[in-house]
Design goal:
heterodimer; A: alpha/beta; seven-stranded mixed β-sheet; three-stranded antiparallel β-sheet; 24 helices; globular; B: alpha/beta; 8 strands; 51% helix
């Protein structure tokens, strides 16, 4: 990429830079809004009366805490929820309401919890001038670069997509950026990419895991992140989180969150999307229309990330195979502990030498239509559509929660389709797919859980067969790309098939201790079939295997 | 939700479009009924009768015919489509020029698009800006409905608004409307059953008896469910009115166009002669061709359908096809209870 470290344009009006007073007011508003929603629901649906709601929260939280490692905080939380569980059954409605308010307030503090006015003021003063420092010297990546790492985000990041178009839309409405999620590095990569594309700041809805890692946590706080704890499933927590996200969108803060939830453990393109946070866009749009806001629109920007090598690939695929295979998956080594994993993460990052590709996809509206540069929604035939017509009846706003849930499902499907069509394929994926499929064809009786144990000698196949597979695969990939069904890294388009394999070999040599792909005399093999499977999966779901039409 | 003053649109001047327009009109709603030809629209307006497809039945006074799609787009919030599948996309596209995101569209056409394997509701989503789409399907022979004989149908949509409004405008003492969420399953069932109506028509003409008919219908149901499951629909949908209900009716009735096509072929007519004699589109003929191609891609078998394909498009004679069908390996009766299967 042509990386520029110029001073970005002045922040978008209503962007990241809220005053602490505004943040505090926003917190109070979220509490009141979430509270009002629960009371409305309790009135219309007896299944969610206050006692049921409180019981749901206490039950979920106590269950979650049972699997938490012992700590002072865990003990404090256990005591709190035990007290709620003991108190609410005998309490009157007024007391139950107070308990509910207290729980919501606690959740709001937690979601925005790392907000520190002093750090925030400092960051606000540094912004926009301080971005350069944030993304280079102060960031762990920049730190590693200065320590002699071969990896450098500036050098290794390739950004594609309609950047001007997206920048223009950021002036016409509020953006929700929804990237695919592969690695803990994603947030930093996207942060840097958005900055270098001179896009305005985004508020991040980031998973708790990014806050437990001290270095990432530092980075996330500076990006204005709010915390999403995916282990919390109670109705009160989910509603509070959505109320907070909706509020940020309503006040015009561009939002970024990973719609697939946690990092994708299988290595393929996302197949499922969590609709909860995604639905906040439609809530904010409708609230903006009702309040007569001048820029009511919320636009969605799907975004795909692709790494030639993924830092945490090993642990991710192990977890995936264990989850799906259960007793059929035999783990050979014990997984390393958390500290070792974190150390490995940074050591791997230091040793990695591979490009990261990020594609900003065509922006869409909340109903799955494409949005042009002027902010007009266009249906599949290119006709301009009035977005309000989807939520109006006889020219007036018409509320319908069931309809809105379905619209969000349609939006989710559109995002998944965009992910699939913009999934970026690199040489490591082509080589891994070809070798894995060749090994699979040579072992037709083995199921997946046996195949992934065929390491070393057992996985050896003639090199010529792998080469033949790549020669079979590449024309199909080019054809698929021409039909806008997938996206190939630019260098792949012209590279002779055999060079693709050689290039992948050299990438894999630099990482994963060269386990993924090996060549010996006239044979190719893998010392870690699980990893080979992980990288192979990037090309799954396209029917590219031999024998498919 | 819907103002009584809203007109309801019906696109397609065939027998089923007219029968549905008549029900809605009899329920006290104004209907704007689109016909491709202006002459036909004028005739319906002056005679209140669809003389070409439903002669002898007087249509409700509330039904007004038009040949102007823009008028339908402007005046109607709920619009039913009963256009033969080969013309469906073209008409949907033209109407799409006059729609916004607010209309509710319901497909009543039981067919699959050649080459793309797309169902009609998917075409509506592609050719119009509308999202609120549904499918109406069931044992609904137009001539029985217009004669006000009791029957039922299924409205499938993922939008409650569509399900409720369709139940509201169509339900009447002689027509019951059940709702379902499985749009794909209901639509697929409606398209696939036509294939087996051709097969039973053929067997009836050849005097093969009721045992044969029973076997064709039930094995047909298994074949349909097998494909549906492979494509992601719920096979249980096939046990409902849009599945078994429609299959049994179409395979037993001489009013069914598809049954009649099969019957005429059983009497010795060529496919071309049979289709010409019927005079209306028999969707099942196209469906045989389209599904045959699809199952080859999916790697599954639908033996009755494959037999029909051989007969209709591969110049095989009936005797060879029948012998082939009776000699395929015998398999499980109800394969889904055994955790699925293929053969």
């Amino acid at each position: 990429m042509n990386f520029e470290m110029n001073v970005p344009e002045p922040p978008h009006p209503g962007g990241l830079l809220l005053t602490p007073e505004e943040i505090s007011r926003m917190r109070n508003e979220v509490v009141e809004k979430a509270l009002a929603e629960h009371l409305d629901a309790a009135e219309t649906d007896p299944a969610w009366s206050l006692d049921v709601l409180l019981n749901d929260a206490a039950t979920h939280e106590l269950e979650r805490l049972r699997s938490e490692p012992p700590s002072l905080e865990t003990r404090r939380q256990k005591a709190y929820w035990s007290q709620i569980a003991g108190q609410f059954p005998h309490a009157d409605e007024k007391t139950r309401l107070e308990l509910l308010r207290d729980i919501i307030s606690g959740y709001v503090r937690e979601i925005t919890g790392y907000f520190d006015p002093r750090v925030y003021r400092l960051a606000a003063r540094l912004l926009p001038l301080g971005f350069k420092a944030l993304f280079t010297r102060l960031s762990p990546v920049g730190f590693l670069t200065s320590m002699g790492s071969r990896f450098s985000l500036e050098k290794n990041l390739v950004i594609t997509g309609p950047v001007d178009h997206i920048r223009e839309l950021s002036r016409r409405g509020t953006l929700m950026m929804t990237p695919t999620h592969l690695s803990n590095l994603d947030s930093m990569v996207i942060g840097l990419a958005l900055h270098s594309c001179r896009l305005p700041p985004f508020t991040y809805g980031a998973g708790l895991n990014l806050f437990t890692n001290p270095i990432l946590s530092f980075f996330m706080n500076h990006l204005g992140a709010y915390k999403v704890d995916r282990r919390k499933h109670s109705r009160i927590y989910k509603a509070t989180l959505k109320a907070y996200a909706t509020m940020t969108l309503k006040i015009g803060q561009h939002n970024l969150f990973f719609p697939g939830g946690a990092r994708n453990r299988r290595g393929d393109v996302e197949q499922k999307i969590k609709l909860g946070l995604l639905g906040c866009g439609l809530s904010a749009f409708q609230a903006n229309l009702r309040s007569g806001k001048s820029r009511p629109d919320v636009f969605i920007v799907p975004c795909t990330l692709s790494y030639g090598l993924v830092l945490e690939a090993k642990s991710l695929i192990e977890q995936h195979l264990q989850q799906t295979g259960k007793s059929r998956f035999i783990r050979l080594k014990k997984e390393s502990n958390r500290l070792t994993r974190q150390l490995n993460f940074w050591r791997n990052l230091k040793n990695m030498d591979s490009n990261i590709h990020l594609h900003l996809c065509d922006p869409i509206d909340l109903f799955g239509n494409k949005v042009d540069r002027e902010g007009n929604s266009r249906d599949k035939q290119g006709r301009v559509v009035d977005r309000r017509s989807y939520i109006e009846l006889h020219g007036r706003y018409h509320p319908d929660e069931q309809r809105d849930r379905q619209y969000t499902r349609v939006l989710g499907e559109t995002i998944l389709d965009s992910f699939k069509r913009n999934n970026i394929i690199l040489c490591t994926h082509v080589a891994a797919f070809s070798l894995f499929e060749t090994i699979k064809a040579a072992n037709p009786k083995e199921d997946l859980y046996h195949l992934v144990r065929l390491d070393g000698e057992a996985s050896k196949v003639p090199l010529g067969d792998v080469r033949e597979y790549i020669e079979f695969l590449m024309p199909r990939l080019l054809e698929l790309e021409a039909a806008e069904g997938i996206r190939l890294a630019e260098y792949l388009r012209k590279m002779p098939p055999w060079e693709i394999f050689q290039s992948a070999l050299s990438h894999f040599k630099s990482f994963h201790s060269g386990e993924v792909l090996r060549v010996e005399k006239n044979t190719a093999y893998s010392l870690n079939m699980k990893l080979l499977y992980y990288y192979r999966n990037k090309l799954d779901h396209y029917g590219l295997e031999k024998g498919t039409a | 939700m819907n103002q009584a003053s809203d007109k309801v649109g019906v696109i397609g001047g065939g027998s089923f479009g007219s029968a549905v327009a008549d029900i809605i009109g009899n329920n006290g709603r104004s209907v704007l009924h689109w016909h491709r030809s202006a002459e036909m629209a004028a005739e319906v307006n002056s005679l209140h009768e669809n003389r070409k497809y439903l002669p002898g039945f007087r249509l409700s006074e509330n039904v007004a015919a038009t040949s102007d799609l823009a008028e339908v787009g402007r005046q109607c919030r709920l619009i039913f489509f009963a256009v033969p599948s080969p013309h469906f996309r073209e008409v949907a596209h033209k109407l799409g020029d006059h729609l916004s995101g607010s209309q509710l569209l319901v497909s009543m056409t039981k067919g699959i698009e050649l080459d793309s394997f797309k169902l009609m509701s998917q075409i509506l989503r592609e050719e119009t800006p509308c999202l609120k789409v549904g499918v109406l399907s069931g044992p609904n022979l137009a001539k029985e409905i217009i004669a006000k004989k009791p029957s039922g149908t299924v409205i499938a949509s993922q939008y409650e608004e569509v399900r409720n409004l369709v139940q509201d405008v169509l339900s009447c003492p002689y027509f019951r409307v059940y709702s379902n969420h499985d749009v794909y399953g209901v639509e697929l069932a409606g398209a696939l059953k036509n294939v087996y109506a051709i097969a039973t028509g053929l067997s009836a003409a050849m005097g093969l008896g009721d045992n044969t008919k029973g076997m064709l219908i039930t094995r047909g149901l298994i074949e349909m469910s097998r494909l549906a499951e492979k494509l992601g629909a719920n096979p249980l949908t096939f046990l409902g009115l849009a599945g078994v209900g429609d299959l049994v009716t179409t395979c037993s009735s001489e009013l069914s166009r598809n049954f009649r096509v099969g019957f005429l072929i059983g009497l010795g007519r060529t496919l071309k002669e049979a289709v010409e004699e019927i005079g209306e589109v028999a969707e099942g003929v196209n469906t045989v061709k389209i599904v045959r191609k699809k199952i080859a891609e999916l790697g599954i078998h639908m033996h009755i359908l494959e037999g029909l394909h051989a007969l209709l498009f591969e110049n095989q004679d009936v005797k060879t096809v029948l012998t082939g069908l009776m000699n395929i390996p015998q398999m499980e009766d109800v394969e889904f209870s055994q955790g699925g299967g293929d053969c």
